[in-house]
Amino acid sequence: MTAEQIKAARAALGWSIKEIAESTGIGSATLKRYEASQGIPKSRKGHLQLLRTHFENAGIEFIGAPDDRPGIRIGSPKT
Q: What are phi and psi of 58, to 5 degrees?
């Protein structure tokens, strides 16, 4: 998951950084750093997987590869 995909997923869902921080336990400063990165953000605490799962549960599908047209698809939230 790239920084661009994180930004796109958050925008598609209309979520603020504060909302994501509160629902995942990932700090706001960390989320801002991820979004300001280029490519795949550096993460040591499993935050990217937690963030990915959080977005996927809301209906976001991550497509492509980091070096080959990464993007998102918007679907229905998982129940």
A: -90, 0
Separation between Cα atoms, residue 61 and residue 30, nearest integer Å: 22
d(CA 29, CA 35): 10
Which homologous superfamily does the CATH classification assign to the domain defined by 3-74?
A: lambda repressor-like DNA-binding domains (1.10.260.40)
Query: In this predicted model, what pLDDT tens digit does every residue of 25-75 receive, in sequence order?
Result: 999 999 999 999 999 999 988 999 999 999 999 999 999 998 899 999 999
CA angle 42, 53, 7 (to 5 degrees): 55
Measured in whole angstroms, how far is the alpha carbon of residue 70 from the centre of its chain? 12
